[in-house]
Structure formats: structure tokens, C-alpha cells
Amino acid sequence: MSVPAWLWAVTIAGLLLVVLADLTADSRRRHTVTVPEAARWLGIYVSLAVLFGLGIWFFAGGTYAGEFFGGYITEYSLSVDNLFVFMIIMGSFRVPAVHQHRVLLVGIVIALFMRGAFIAVGALAINALSWLFYLFAAFLIYTSVNLVRQGMGADEEWTEPKVVGLVRRLLPVTDRFCGAKTTVRLDGKRWFTPMLIVMIAIGLTDLLFALDSIPAIFGLTREPFLVCTANSFALMALRQLYVLLGGLLKKLVYLSYGLAAILALIGVKLVLHALHENELPFLNDGNAIPIPEISIEISLMVIVGVLAITTVASLVAVRRNPALVAPAEEDGHPGGSAPDLPPQQLIRADQRTARPGSDQPTHR
């Protein structure tokens, strides 16, 4: 698939304009995002993704369109599982409900830029070293096993990234939020608020999620243009899912099994593709092994089918046995939040805040 530079530029500019429009709308919003608002924006993002995929179908053919839709659905489904961790982060920092949408947006924008670099490096590496497919396949299968263990009762906990802890130790941070501000001046000194820290936490955590999602989409397509756009569309619509799904996330008790099956399928697909392009000297003397591969059509049908089955099965199981859903802890719920303080009250709050270099957390 040959993508001219001008098309890359137009696509990136279009995606940035959409994010800018979302940021503008968010800056004017002074209330907690409602379900109808989230539904409207989700409809916009999904419609744009569908139109983009149809455009690929029209100009480049059904194969590339199938790869885009397969990658988009896979990235989006993996993102649903990641929302659990986002909820834990929001609860840990006690982010006010009215600001959670903005935190997610800025954190996801950070992740978009970092993922772009990740995708570029991955594409160059794969094109130069086909044996990397074996490593990607092994990692995806390992991840699928972990997801099965998670579904069997292993607790999912969030550990603050070391970079976030370092930022919090080096910078003066207040212990309360001040609206949506990331910095505030108190007594002539510039202080940072927990808003900045939680944005960095969301961005870095989402980048860690890319360790399994990026190899997964490279298992469906080797086109950097499709990998980049599928990731972008999936990430941009992630915040709306956060609002719409809410408590429904905890009802998807079999989601881990479904995602494990999808990652295992893509892992097998990567192994078959690697054998088909084999360059390892100890396998068939370094020659390609003629072996059937899993087509993108089959992959797409399996991905959609597995997601549908696990969703329906989860909802039916929870309806029959409500005890399957663990009760939400007050601090871990997205709604649990610390109240905002105006700057004059932050002066008293920051007197209780650990100074730069202290190991005591300041976001509690």
C-alpha cells in the first residue's frame, strides 16, 4: 500500500482538527459529561472511523479496508479492558467527576504522540527483521495467558509509573485540585496541581498498554498508515466509552477470556506469517515455508464473533448471578473525588504538602 506524503499530512491534520474541536468543546464545558453528550461524541468518532474505512475500501480495495476495520475493532476492544485501570487511577487520585473527561482527553493526546513514535519504530524494525514476528507472537500468547489468569480471579492493580513518582518528587505539588488548572501561583511561587500528575499517569499507562495492542494490530496489517489511523480512531473514542459503559464494565466478567482468545488468534497468525517469510537459518535452511495463513476476513469475523459472544455471555451470567460483580469501593469508583479548592484555600493546603524531594505522596 503506497501512501503519499500529502495523504499522511492531510490525515494527521484532520485527526488533529477533530481532537482540537473536542478540546474546545471540553474547555467550554462546566459540568460533568452526561451520557447523551458522550453518546453524541461516540457517534461522531465511530462514524468518522467507518467513513475512513469505506474510503480505504473505495481507493485501495477491500483487503486493506478489512485490515483497517480489523485493527480498529481489536484496538477498541483491548481499550475496553484498559478502562478498568483508568477507573482505578481516577479513584486513586480522587479526580473530581467534572474534570475526568478532560484528564482522559489530555492523557490520550499524550499517548497518541508517544504511540506514533512506537509505531514508526515497530514498522521499521519489522520490515528489516521479519523474525520479530516470532517475538510479537510469543508476547501476545503470553499476554493471552495472563488475561485468562485475570479472568480466573487474579486481582488487577495499578502501580504508579516511576516517572510519575519522580515528577511528583521533583516538582512542588499541591494536595488538592484547583479546577482544571495544572499549575497555580501561590505566594509568588508556581505550584503544580494533581491534575498534571494524573494526566501524565494516564498517558504513560496507556503507552504501557500499547505493548500488547501494537503487536496485535501488526499481526493484522503491516501497513504503518493503517496501524496509525486505527490506533488514533480507537484512542480518540475511548473517553466516550468511559462515560457510557461506567458500571457496565464490571459486568463484562468474561471479557478477559474473549480478549485472550483474540490475542491468541493473532499470535498464531503471526507465527504462520513468520514461517511463510522465514529467514531463520535453522528453519528449512532459511527458506520460506509454504504454509496456509489466516486471512484478514477470517480474523475479522472471529474478532467480532468472540466479542459478541463474551459480551452476551457476561451479561447473561451476571443477570443470573449478580454476585459475580464485585462491589465497587468508594475510593476506586470514578465518582469518588476530592473537592476542588480555590487558590486562596490552596495556600493552607500546600502547607501540608510534602516539599520537593520528599517521598511522601502529595495526591492523597
Describe the structure.
By secondary structure, the protein is mostly helical. It has one domain. It is 67% helix and 2% strand. The C terminus is likely disordered.
What key phrases describe this protein's structure?
two-stranded antiparallel ribbon; 364 residues; globular; disordered C terminus; 2 strands; mainly alpha
Q: Report the helical percentage.
A: 55-70%
Strand content: under 5%
For the report, how would you describe the main beta sheet? Answer: 2 strands, antiparallel
Question: What gross morphology would you assign?
Answer: globular
Classify the secondary structure makeup into a structural class: mainly alpha
Q: SSE order, as H and E?
A: HHHHHHEEHHHHHH
Count of helix runs: 12
What topology, given as strand order, has the largest sheet? Answer: 1-2
Provide the low-confidence segments as ranges. Answer: 328-339, 341-364
Number of domains: 1
Chain-averaged pLDDT: 76
Distance between the termini: 50 Å
How many beta-strand runs? 2
Q: Cα-atom Rg, whole angstroms?
A: 22 Å
